[in-house]
């Protein structure tokens, strides 16, 4: 996938500044297009990352019980308004056939998926599906809680409102007890 085109972003930011009635040549704004381009490169770097690659790291460990990494902080950009939404992701799976991955890889997958123009639902399901497709576990479950700036600083203006999304796959979709165990561990 193409890297970001920094000069194009810089030009676009100059145009936006002009369009809102600002002077892109005033001292305080001179370096702003460059800064914004650099920032976009950073906050959209997930477009160049495939979350599934992280799960190539597996240890042949015989653990077929819940593994949960909770409270993974993330920042993303809503694809409708290009303003941040941010919160915590909780990622659980039950390994099968010794395919236990590195704990940090679960957080890296969240990071790669979040750093794109996104929807909260898509972050949630993409992380769950990536785990299923690569580790072939008994199940995967992802819960994401986030605050959307497009609902707080503008529009409907509801600061503090939280959106919670879940993706349940495999045994977590079939077995109420397995799902309840993860939910209670998240609240623990
Ligand atoms: N499903 C979903 N919706 C989102 C997410 N982030 C932002 N939105 C919503 O996207 C919608 C876009 O609605 P539109 O009516 O096209 O845009 P708008 O006029 O700016 O909408 P308002 O925010 O209601 O002012 C809004 O309801 C946002 O709350 C997300 O991650 N998931
Ligand atoms: Zn939005």
Automatic annotation (TrEMBL):
Binding site for Zn(2+): 78, 81, 150
Key words, A-Z: GTP-binding, Hydrolase, Metal-binding, Nucleotide-binding, One-carbon metabolism, Zinc
Catalytic activity: GTP + H2O = 7,8-dihydroneopterin 3'-triphosphate + formate + H(+)
Stated name of the protein: GTP cyclohydrolase 1
GTP cyclohydrolase I domain ranges (all copies): 9-186
Stretch forming the signal peptide: none
EC number: 3.5.4.16
CDD domains named in the record: GTP_cyclohydro1
Domain of life: Bacteria
Organism encoding this protein: Cytobacillus eiseniae
Binding partners and assembly: Homopolymer.
UniProt similarity note: Belongs to the GTP cyclohydrolase I family.
Gene giving rise to this polypeptide: folE
Pfam families on file: GTP_cyclohydroI
InterPro entries per UniProt: GTP-CH-I_C/QueF, GTP-CH-I_N, GTP_CycHdrlase_I, GTP_CycHdrlase_I_CS, GTP_CycHdrlase_I_dom
Molecular function as annotated in GO: GTP cyclohydrolase I activity
Enzyme class: hydrolase
